[in-house]
């Protein structure tokens, strides 16, 4: 019998890993797009939205605050790294606008 691609295995959806980074990465990625550091996948261009970027930084900080003491060292380092990268880029962008 010929496989027409309709087997159960070929119809399975891709599911991301169920771990902490899967929760953080969408906010981080959207933050990079909002900062104009990545191309907006919908508009196929770089666009800045600094208010949204600030909100995403705030959301990641809220997540950090609410999970304090409950993360593994690797998870905490990952979240801290994402926050640091976003904050640094945000400060660069806002300092450039002031000058």
Write a structural description.
The chain is an all-alpha fold. The protein has one domain. It is 59% helix and 0% strand. The chain has helices spanning 20-34, 50-66, 73-98. The model has no long low-confidence stretch (mean pLDDT 89).
Strand content: under 5%
Largest sheet: none
Helix and strand composition category: mainly alpha
How many strands appear in the DSSP assignment?
A: 0
Overall geometry:
flat
Please, what is the average pLDDT? 89
**Fraction in helix:** 55-70%
Order of helices and strands: HHH
Please indicate the count of domains. Answer: 1
The quaternary state of the protein chains shown equals single chain
How far from one another are the termini? 69 Å
Indicate the low-confidence ranges by residue numbers: none
Number of contiguous helices: 3
SSE topology sketch:
Blueprint lengths: L19 H15 L15 H17 L6 H26 L1
Brief summary of the model shown:
The protein is mainly α and 99 residues long. The chain has one domain (20-98). The chain is 59% helix and 0% strand.
Spell out the key features of this protein.
mainly alpha; 99 residues; 0% strand; flat; 3 helices
